[in-house]
Amino acid sequence: FGLVVVLAKSLLILYCRNGCLCVPTIQLSPSLTQLTWPAPPTSMIAANQTTSPYTTSYDLQNPRTSYSVGDIITVVITARDGLKNSKTYGGDFFQAKLFNTKLKASVYGEVTDHHNGTYTATFKLLWEGQAKVSIRLIHSSEAVLLRHRERDPDKVFFVGVFRGVDHQEKVVCNAQRSERLLKASQCCCEYKHPISGELWFCHRPSYLPCSAWVDHGMGGYQACVWMCVDACVCKGMSVKCVPGLDTPSPAGFYLHDTWTSLMCHAQSFPTANQIASCLKDKQVLMMGDSTLRQWFEYLLKTVPTLKKLNLYTSAQSGPLEAVDTCNNIRLVWRAHGLPIRTFMVPRADLHYIASEVDALAGGQHSVVVFTIWAHFTTFPLYTYLKRLAGIRRAIQALLQRAPQTLVLIKSANTGYKDIYGSDWLSWQLDCALRVMFRELPVVIIDVWQMTSCHYSPDNIHPSHEVIKNEVDLFLSFVCPI
Ligand SMILES: *[C@@H]1O[C@H](CO)[C@@H](O)[C@H](O)[C@H]1NC(C)=O
Ligand SMILES: *[C@@H]1O[C@H](CO)[C@@H](O)[C@H](O)[C@H]1NC(C)=O
């Protein structure tokens, strides 16, 4: 049994002493107290006092000479700072997996924070042969992503194009009246969706009225206060695959690159015919971001009878549509609405998930699948919670009027590796999503575990092997046996 140290370099975000202020509290609704993340006890600490991947170590608890399949092993992680002192508080974000490269086998490990500088990772042994432990420090507890997310909502900004008869204007838009918008002398055009109540703001154009807004697109990234050179740190299987199942931990594992679900009796769909007969007579409405568009693309590539229609829409934000008239399948993918980082597209093509769902009759031939998180990592948690609440209301109403509708939610996946998105931010949103939909008879396709323990390099767009396994799990719920 080999124990391997794979502590990735911590992504430490430094703040200038005078570049920003820490905002130490965030408001969470009572049901979301599970989202609170322990913060370091002091507000300013030196970089060499933050958790270091070079001095942090881990050991197998009570090692034995042999193990059997089904055993649980525990690994104790001792966090230390850059000066080799043991940490006395928690809040570091670790990701743990057990893997065997030769067998293309891996499983997710659950990490528990003991809030005293130690953590335990537990793994279930699920295949015969060797297994190695990998623990990665994704963020030290001193990393200030939480504060940054809450107080700086326009680090990603958007552009709106307004059109008149022979004149057009481009202005900055965003999901909140952010500083960047408020600074503008004529703030703002406000767009409130009549049904979902979602708000969107654009800087008021100089000549054209607010109603002249036609196109939406990605503006840019602005992270002016990040990564300063100053050394100061502002801290900051026998079950049928049906809706309503809890996600166990681990939710499954890879062996020979195939995911075995521990949640329910999932199947593999190796041929186009098997996929097509599973999807026969289904109308699948997919709403989300590019990580769900990968499912659409995978299905299109794998099932030759599925033909894509040319709707002359954006390849990036859709809507996209494919049909298989022999098997009576209709597949639609569209972006989840604003905010979405995309090339310039007609804003009328961007529909909120809740309003799409409200316009759907549903029923036994209807499958709704959505994912929403990756374009929300730059906004305060509240923005995301509000959006989820609207979607939840719409899904609840759909399941009430048409209980046979199958609703699936693709969880967040790992692989974000920059300051606009990080696995820690994704994780927080993903926890919120799971809490929000816990009581509803919907399916959560847990791709977090599937991506975090796979051997392929971190990528916000998971590799083909992972997508195949994600889609197989999705199909297992569409036609359960
Ligand atoms: C740790 O960092 C602080 C602040 O930069 C510095 O003053 C101190 O000398 C460092 N300690 C060691 C042992 O390197
Ligand atoms: C930390 O807490 C855990 C769980 O309560 C305990 O088992 C462990 O001994 C503690 N370690 C230290 C260094 O205090």
TrEMBL record:
Family: Belongs to the NXPE family.
Residues of the signal peptide: 1-22
Alphabetized Gene3D superfamilies for the sequence: Immunoglobulins (2.60.40.10)
InterPro entries: Ig-like_fold, Ig_E-set, NXPE4_C, NXPH/NXPE
UniProt keyword list: Signal
Protein name as catalogued: NXPE C-terminal domain-containing protein
GO-annotated biological processes: nervous system development
NXPE C-terminal domain boundaries: 259-479
